[in-house]
Specification:
mainly alpha; 20 helices
Length: about 425
């Protein structure tokens, strides 16, 4: 059954059918051919129960927050401010790409939105200053992946919802690995540009007084992040309520910088509706597919397969990592999460692993899928913003950052406290 489902999934995706529809079609097929009793009669009830959750309300709020920051011009000011602080490093403006992506990851919660934001602002600078298009584009694509690791993360919210795991603890667990990945991206960029200085463009040093003035454009993002995370961990608000507070804060910041217009509000709302509708279609479709898979006994079949192989807990984790790396080449990241979580997470937890730790490990693997062809969404987002050159340049430029992510996977497996330290301290 596993083979039939895998072939069906890849075949339908190759036809460019929307992912949410693919999940429903697979669910219908599994229900028809493998399920002992018809579940399609319960489709209406299942759709309602899968979407009737206060936790999921946080998703449109965080999407709207990111839309406001992007469309009000705050992104451009943030990028210019970080340019003043990091362009003296080997690699110059490439570091501003990663730093800006890190800042926006701490507010938007979406990797694709973060990559699109930074790419739109940064690409004209690359052409004007003569940067190597491969490394410059790869840094944007990789930096954008931090949007699903650094809290607040939409993907962590979905993971917490599907596994009934504490979302605040997941947010805490993602903070250190997210910052470590950002620093790793900066380090690998500096090393590459010290070896090949011509790839990094011009290193620019700004007067210190100008750097201090630039902080006024960074402060609003830092304050907004502090408000969102602070209200969650002081108990003043749930993640959903904190997301609503964040939207109000984003509007206030946009108003201070005279970025609020009727067109901005309209475009932000339209963008939020499109992105949220896509996410919810995937979540609901995956819920139906998971229901049919459970009815058909796939979880039991996979468990028996792994147990029959006689694997130790560590070997099981390594097999799971390999599965996610391979599936990440072909399946869109959110779909990969919601399809595999109900099957993989119980197996991992049964082996004695912490579900919060595994959630962070999974997110790193999902991040990797965002910048590995042929279905790496961030690669296409960045290429779309370039409007010239070949897709292969973006793919090549992302390779060093994939290596950093693989090192983070190894580090998380070897030292689980990287993810569990903050949750344990706060609890």
């Amino acid at each position: 059954m596993i083979g039939y489902i895998s072939i069906g999934l890849l075949g339908l995706l190759s036809l460019s059918i929307p992912v949410g529809i693919v999940l429903f079609l697979l669910g219908f097929g599994v229900d028809q051919w493998f399920s002992p009793f018809p579940l399609i009669r319960a489709l209406g009830s299942m759709v309602w129960s899968a979407s009737n959750s206060a936790t999921l309300i946080a998703i449109p709020f965080f999407v709207l927050l990111g839309e406001i920051l992007v469309r009000s011009g705050i992104a451009e000011r943030t990028y210019a401010a970080l340019d003043r602080w990091v362009s003296w490093l080997p690699g110059g403006l490439v570091h501003a790409n990663v730093a800006t992506a890190t800042m926006f990851s701490a507010t938007s919660g979406s990797s694709v939105a973060t990559a699109a934001t930074v790419a739109t602002v940064a690409m004209p600078q690359a052409e004007r200053l003569g940067y190597d298009p491969k490394l410059f584009s790869g840094a944007i694509a990789a930096g954008g992946t931090l949007g699903i690791m650094i809290p607040p993360s939409i993907n962590l919210i979905v993971y917490g919802f599907l596994t009934q795991t504490s979302i605040p603890q997941l947010f805490l667990a993602g903070l250190i690995p997210g910052i470590a990945l950002a620093l790793g991206f900066l380090v690998i960029t500096a090393i590459i540009c010290m070896i090949r200085p011509e790839l990094g463009g011009e290193r620019r040093v700004f007067p210190f007084i100008e750097m201090l003035r630039a902080l006024t454009h960074l402060l609003p993002i830092v304050v907004l992040f502090g408000i969102i995370i602070g209200t969650i961990y002081t108990g003043l608000a749930t993640p959903t309520e904190a997301a609503a507070v964040g939207v109000a804060g984003a509007f206030a910041i946009a108003a201070v910088f005279h970025g609020v217009t009727w067109d901005m509000v309209a475009q932000s709302v339209i963008g939020t509706i499109k992105i949220t509708s896509m996410i919810m279609l995937v979540v609901i479709g995956a819920s139906f597919l998971n229901l049919t898979l459970a009815s058909a006994g796939l979880g039991r079949e996979l468990r028996d397969l792994l147990e029959g192989m006689g694997l130790t807990p560590m070997m099981t984790i390594l097999v799971v990592v390999c599965i996610y790396i391979v599936l990440g080449f072909f399946i869109e990241t959110l779909s990969l999460m919601v399809v595999t979580i109900p099957i993989i997470v119980p197996l991992v937890v049964a082996q004695g692993f912490d579900p919060i730790w595994f959630g962070i490990l999974m997110i790193v693997l999902i991040e990797m899928a965002l910048i590995t062809p042929p279905v790496g969404l961030n690669l296409y987002v960045v290429q779309g913003a370039r409007k010239s050159g070949h897709m292969g340049e973006v793919m090549l430029g992302a390779i060093p950052f994939v290596i950093v992510m693989l090192l983070m996977v190894v580090a998380l497996i070897a030292f689980p406290s990287i993810a569990l330290f903050l949750p344990e301290v706060m609890s």
